[in-house]
Structure formats: C-alpha cells, structure tokens
Specification:
single chain, about 450 residues, alpha+beta, Rossmann fold, 2 domains, eight-stranded mixed β-sheet, 16 strands, elongated, binds adenosine-5'-triphosphate, binds magnesium ion
Length: about 450
C-alpha cells in the first residue's frame, strides 16, 4: 500500500518535472519570427516573380522520399549521403529520408508523371531541405532552397538562361558583390581521362592527403578537389586542370556558354577546381559566391546533369539547373540594408460605444484593402490609445458615444502631423484611401 502510494507520487513528480521543462527547437533548425519574416516575404516574392517571367512552372514534391533516391542520385561518396542525411525506418521495412536537396525529387516526380516524354520542361521549386551539418552562420540543419531546373535542352543557350535568371535575381533584390565562378566537367569521356590523370597525381602524393581524400582516391578522385582541408588544398593547386582534357564537343559547349554570357554582360571567373559536391553533374558547373557572408560564401550553385533522368529510369533527357540558399540571400540583404521599420498596420480601431458598428466599419475598411486591427479586451481609453501607439499603426480610429450619435469617427494621426479630426462614417473609406496613398 505504502510502496504503491510512493510509486504514484514519484510518477506525479516526474510528470510535473517533464511538463515544466522548456523544450527548445532542434539545433540548427530555426524559428522565423515577425520582424524577420518581412524580408523573407520580399525575397520569396522576387524569386517567384522572376521564375514566372522566364516561363518556369512551380513543382512541389514531398519533404520525405525513399533514402535510396538520394543515395543513387547524389552519390554514395558525398558528404550529404555519407554523413548528413536524416534517415529513419518507416514501420521497420522501408528506409526514408528528409530531403537534403530537391533535384533528385524533381527528377523522380518528372519520371513518375511522364513530364519528360516528348516534352521540354522549365520548373522551379522552393522549400525546406535538411542536412545534419555543423550549425553555424549561414549553415543550418533545416534550410530553404529556391531552385530552377530545365529539362530537354542540350545547347549552351539554356545554360546561359539559367545563369541569367540568377543574375536578374541579384539585380531585383538589390544584392551587390555576387560573382560567378564557372567550370565544365566535360563529357563522360573527358571525365574518365581526367579521373585517371587525377588518380596518378594524387596517388603520387598519397601521404599528404587528408584521410577523407585518401578514401575517395580509389573510388572518385574528382571529389578530392572539393576538400576544404588546407594541406589537401595546397596539393589541389598543383593538380592537373580539366580544361586540358576537354573533347571538342565539350570545348565548343563551354565556349558557346562563355560567349553568350559575355554578350549579356556577365563575366564569370573560370575556376578549374570547381567540381561541386554532388555526383550527378556533367559538363557546365557554376557557383555564385560573395565575400559578404564569411566562410559560407556560396549563395547559389548549379550545373548540367544530362544523365540523371536516364539513370533514374527515365528516357535520356538533358537537364540543367541551380539551387539557391534562401537563408544566405536573406542574410545578404539584411547585411546590406538597415531594415526600415516596417509599419504593419494602417488603422488601430478603438470603440468606446457601438461595438457592432465598429466591427462593421473594420470589415468595410478591409474590403477596401486597408489594414485594420481592432482593439480587443476593453479597458480605459488612455490604455487603448497606448496600445494603438505601440501597434505601429499609422492612425487610431475611435468610435465613442458622441461619434456614434453624430455618425462620425475620430481619426488620430499617430505618426505624422495631421492631428485629430472628425470624419463622417460614410466618407471613411475614400478619405483614408486618399491619406494612405500620400
Ligand atoms: P556549401 O559548400 O556551402 O556546403 P553546397 O555545395 O553543399 O554548399 P548545394 O548542395 O549546391 O550547396 O546547395 C545550393 C545552395 O544551398 C548553397 O549554395 C547554399 O547557398 C545553400 N545551402 C547548402 N547547404 C546549406 C545549409 N546547410 N544551410 C544553409 N544553406 C545551405
Ligand atoms: Mg555542403
């Protein structure tokens, strides 16, 4: 009896303790709060609008896919697949993963729904991605990417278009100091030859390589070029350049792309060490980088992946695209401009009498596109006016006993020099539209 009582007491206490614990968000996964979200909305609006004006259509795919999709698409030997994916068993028999990127999903969806059969597609997506990386500024475990993908074009003109989309996004967001790094990985034949040359070179310096790179030497020496380890980077500087291995067709494609970009006033820096961290790339690869974000300097990255659709079971379809880090874009914009204090409201509505009339007035104003917040919870007029002031609204609108009788409202300018005035209720909408448009 006594022991039973103690047990119950213990469980009550431990439940109490659990309930009082403040649970925090998961490391590297951020809340976006009012005050930050306005910049996000502005960025998202520009991204959607630019994609729309180039004729790209939105695609939304699930956040969860079969783990196999990413293993096969991104590559077994990549950081993402080796150590960064959130993987879990679904009911014990199917391995699922939170998507670390969306190109593999877009290709999966395109194949599944026949989007690539005798068709060319310009697609865009935006949404959260997940990678278990070491969280730091500009590097999170849940982050957002905006991406575009063009399926069904072989020539360099579409590569140039994809790069111009990026360039327009910087222009329309007012982002400065972003520059383009460009390279080509050539055809499969180029890559075979280059791989062999890299293998020979790095094998002769095996002892200088970091342990990750030593492991990659046998299976994919190209991936060594992506290493961030200082000693390996010194070695990479002396490694053979891919440009010496290009076949005539790849050379032509790369030349056409450079010319087209030049005609659009875009001057890339050719970076022969740029290989990109995902295995599916072929031919063109590029990164938009900035010196304004510290170590996380890439804002956008992409390239051609002509074999992925076929490798995932579809009909051979050339493809090219990019993915942009929305957090890094938002940080770039916030670093550049003092965010002007953003008034979220036009009117703070206070009713001291005739509450139903005030409610209807609020709805009429909203019908006309005016942003109105009604005071809730009652209280003295003085306190309600204080709330009006701290709400950030431009005007306070007051309906009191006198106004009710006379068919008026009182309008008080909280930010400018218009003072306080009586306005006939029937004129409220037109009067406010005039004031707010000034
Ligand atoms: P990085 O070299 O910075 O790790 P990455 O090569 O892994 O980038 P991609 O997989 O090509 O990047 O993704 C495209 C873009 O998505 C990057 O240029 C970056 O802006 C953004 N991005 C990638 N990983 C993260 C992350 N963990 N947190 C925030 N943004 C990210
Ligand atoms: Mg990365």
């Amino acid at each position: 009896m006594k022991a039973g009582y103690l047990l119950v007491l213990k469980s009550v206490i431990s439940r109490g303790e659990t309930m009082s614990l403040k649970i925090q968000s998961v490391k590297g996964m951020n809340d976006l709060l009012p005050g930050q979200i306005e910049t996000w909305h502005r960025v998202e609006e520009v991204l959607r609008s630019v994609a729309w004006r180039y004729g790209y259509q939105e695609i939304r795919t699930p956040v969860v896919e079969r783990t196999e999709l990413f293993k096969q698409s991104i590559g077994d030997q990549t950081d993402i697949v080796e150590k960064e994916m959130y993987v879990f068993d679904d009911a014990g028999d199917v391995s699922l993963a939170l998507r670390p990127e969306a190109t593999a999903s877009t290709v999966r969806a395109g194949n599944q729904h026949g989007l690539f059969h005798n068709q060319q597609q310009r697609l865009w997506y935006m949404g959260p991605m997940f990678r278990r990386e070491k969280p730091q500024k500009g590097r999170y475990r849940q982050f957002h990417q905006f991406g575009i993908e063009a399926f069904g074009w072989l020539g360099a003109d579409i590569d140039a278009e994809i790069i111009r989309v990026g360039s327009r996004i910087w222009k329309e967001l007012g982002v400065e100091n972003v520059s383009l790094q460009l390279n080509t990985l050539g055809s499969p034949a180029t890559r075979t030859d280059y791989r062999e040359a890299l293998y020979q070179f790095f094998s002769s310096h095996r002892d200088t390589l970091d342990s990750d790179s030593q492991r990659r030497l046998e299976r994919n020496p190209l991936r060594i070029l992506d290493s961030k380890v200082a000693s390996t980077q010194e070695l990479i500087e002396r490694a053979p350049s891919i440009l010496d291995f290009l076949d005539p067709e790849s050379r032509q494609h790369f030349g056409d792309l450079c010319e087209s970009l030049e005609r659009s006033g875009i001057n890339p820096e050719i970076n022969v060490r740029l290989v990109r961290g995902l295995d599916y790339y072929t031919s063109t690869v590029f990164e938009w980088v900035t010196d304004k974000l510290g170590a996380q300097n890439a804002v956008c990255a992409g390239g051609r992946y002509d074999r992925l659709v076929e490798q995932r079971g579809g009909r051979a379809t050339p493809a090219v695209g990019f993915a942009m880090g929305v957090e890094r874009l938002v940080e770039l914009i916030s670093a550049q401009k003092e965010d002007s204090s953003h008034s979220i409201l036009d009117i703070y509505l206070i009713s001291m009498a005739g509450q139903q009339i005030a409610v209807e007035l609020g709805e009429t104003l909203r019908d006309a596109g005016i942003r109105v917040c009604e005071h809730c919870g009652g209280g003295k007029i003085k306190n309600q006016m204080k709330r009006a002031d701290s709400s950030g609204a431009r005007y306070a609108m007051i309906v009191g006993e006198d106004e009710l009788k006379q068919g008026n409202v009182q309008l008080k300018d909280l930010r400018g020099k218009e003072g306080q005035q009586q306005i006939a209720r029937t004129d409220v909408v037109s009067s406010l539209q005039k004031r707010l448009s000034n």
